Amino acid sequence: MSCEVIREQLHTLPLNELEPIREHLDGCLDCQGLVRLLADAESAIDLDLADFESERAFAGAWSEAETEPSTVPSNWRFPMTGVFVAIAAAASLLLALQPGTDVGPAPAVVPDCGELQSYEAKAMAGSLEGDDFQCVSDVAYGTGDQRGDATRVLLAHHWTAGEMQAWQTEARRYLDEIDASDPDLAYKFALHLLKQGDDEGAIAYADLAIEAAAGWTDESLASKRVYGVRKIQASAAQKLWRADVEAGRPADESRARTLALALDWLESAADADKDGAKASELCLSAGGTSEECASRGAASRGSGR
């Protein structure tokens, strides 16, 4: 089984269910490194939630929220149009200013780099350099049919090389300009943005992963991935709510969004047979009633996980 196949499977397999690819992982340091990166990203979400829950300075806001009734309509969703416009503008700036990734205007003639698969080994090793890097970049930033495939080669190279700013630029460009229907990349990008402190961006691209969730064809894996995406959104919304409270800004809207996304997280926990305790705590702290939080999380609590 090749590293490319393993990399694709790591986008969808839960990190505690890697037995089908264990033999390859045991003998491949590069793929082991990717597993560690993904595990670190997942752990960061739990740590962020734990830190937030333990902060005494914010306990007063939680207590106050618990005494107020929910004001969120059942069909409430935060409008994302403005966020996506802002993200598109930021992507243009990053593309122009990011050192090491500015490949100039699209070439007038699409270069012939041969089979893009021939570059995958170097990309997976993080060693796509010189003329090879330039040729793949020219295809990626051109107008031909292969620009999506070429961008994926660049993504693999930047990820393995640890060039996360360049990876962020390429991931954003791919999702915004080439193909928004890739739930795996949207999920990973949302995780990355959450770690970078871009909470609005994390919510937006997690939402993109939800819209593209039909791409997760295995029902069991899909429910676990949706759970992870909802967890990202709830965590990001919680951080934005906290920032409003700590800055003394009006926090009704950010709290309402936190409640809505906590309810979504609770529902996804039930669907994925996951522990919904943290989601339930967040739901209650954001002003949800015991009845509505319990009804969305009943199945997850009943699973005993």
Keywords, separated by commas or semicolons:
mainly alpha, globular, disordered C terminus
Main β-sheet description: none
Strand content: under 5%
Report how far apart the termini are.
33 Å
Low-confidence stretches: 52-108, 299-305
Order of helices and strands: HHHHHHHHHHHHHHH
Q: Counting H and I runs of at least 4 residues, what is the number of helices?
A: 15
Q: What is the chains' assembly state?
A: single chain
The counted number of beta strands is 0
Give the overall pLDDT as a whole number: 77
Description:
It contains 15 helices and no strands. By secondary structure, the chain is mainly alpha-helical. The protein has a domain at 58-97 and 180-303.
Write a short abstract of this structure:
This protein is mainly α and 305 residues long.
Break the fold down into its secondary structure elements and pairings.
Elements: H1 3-10, H2 22-26, H3 29-54, H4 59-67, H5 81-97, H6 120-124, H7 130-140, H8 147-161, H9 164-178, H10 183-196, H11 199-211, H12 219-246, H13 252-271, H14 277-285, H15 290-303
Helix pairs in contact: 1-3, 3-10, 3-12, 5-9, 7-8, 8-9, 9-10, 10-11, 10-12, 11-12, 12-13, 13-14, 13-15, 14-15
